[in-house]
Amino acid sequence: MFENAPLFPERASAMARQVDHLFFFALGGSIVFSVLIAVLIFYLGIKYRRRSPTEVGRPPSPGSRATTVLEVTWSLVPLALMMILFVWGTRVYFTIARPPANAAELFVVGKQWMWKIQHPEGNREINELHVPLGRPVKLTLTSEDVIHSFFLPAFRIKTDVLPGRYSTLWFQADRTG
């Protein structure tokens, strides 16, 4: 589904695919229900408009089964869809939040105008990140001065990095580049 949507950078991890599918499900549901509600408002506004100044609406009959079924339906269908979205989003969140035990750990420090990356072998990089393909990588991030946002769009991961605190993030690169 929308393998390489023009709105997003090319995917470079399996996690990006999960995030994109969740995003497009939520976006599709929002569009469908927005259009449905707009069409119903327009249609019902025309159908039940007041035709003369003296016309008065009549209340529905008390205990009408049709009204009860309608109210239960328009309550349960959105609830079911929101629960699907919640459970799906929770699973994606916990997958992103828990790095695998065999992940290579890199230390990242945000400074004014740069990111300093320290590899376990001792290699250092500034504003570039080189990682092995197909191996999970855990980043332990902190900041020296102010709040920074560490964002890798192709992996669909982002975290805010605060001075004096450590944040973790992980990904597994599927594609070179």
Explain the overall architecture.
With 177 residues, the chain is α+β, with helices and mostly antiparallel strands. It folds into two domains: 14-97, Orthogonal Bundle (Helix Hairpins), CATH 1.10.287; 104-172, Sandwich (Immunoglobulin-like). 38% of the residues lie in helices and 23% in strands. The protein has two helices and seven strands. The chain has helices spanning 14-47, 65-97; strands at 104-111, 114-118, 124-126, 136-143, 148-152, 157-161, 167-172. Strands 3-2-1-4-7 form a five-stranded mixed sheet, with no helix packed on it. Strands 5-6 form a two-stranded antiparallel sheet. Strand 2 and strand 3 (124-126) form a beta hairpin. Helix 1 packs antiparallel against helix 2. The longest helix is centred in the first third of the chain and has 34 residues, at 14-47. The radius of gyration is 25 Å and the shape is elongated. The model has no long low-confidence stretch (mean pLDDT 89).
Computed over alpha carbons, the radius of gyration is 25 Å
Count the domains.
Answer: 2
Number of helices: 2
In CATH terms, what is the architecture of the largest domain? Orthogonal Bundle
How do the helices and strands follow one another from N- to C-terminus?
A: HHEEEEEEE
Shape: elongated
Rounded mean pLDDT is 89
Please describe the biggest sheet, giving its number of strands, its sense, and whether it closes into a barrel: 5 strands, mixed
In the sheet with the most strands, the strands line up as 3-2-1-4-7
* Poorly predicted sequence stretches spanning 5 or more consecutive residues: none
Question: What is the fold named in CATH at topology level of the largest domain?
Answer: Helix Hairpins
User: What is the percentage of strand-forming residues?
Assistant: 15-25%
- Total beta strand runs: 7
Q: Which structural category fits the helices and strands?
A: alpha+beta
Helical proportion, percent range: 25-40%
Q: N-to-C terminal Cα separation, in Å?
A: 23 Å
CATH class of the largest domain, please? Mainly Alpha
